[in-house]
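Researcher: I'm preparing a figure for a lab meeting and need a structural model of a single chain. I don't have an experimental structure, so a prediction will have to do for now. The sequence is pasted below. Please return the structure as tokens so I can convert it later.
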Amino acid sequence: MFRKKNTPLAMDTILGEYTSVSGNIESEGSIKILSKIEGDIKANGDIYIEPTASITGNVYGSNVYLSGSIKGNVLAKGILHLMT
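Model: Understood. Here is the structure written out token by token.
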């Protein structure tokens, strides 16, 4: 009868595979990470850590989808997804 409409995934920030960041990152929206990061990541939206990503620092987000490597703490307000 009533169905929830599928809305496309809105990605506010994408850090590409050939990018490296040294420092903290903050975002009001969602972040997709394919790169090397040394620093903390905070987002009010979801955080997607792809298999090519390498993070040294803490991660804070609404939902966190973890496929890459991380050396630090992860705090998800909602769900932490450990992907393969």
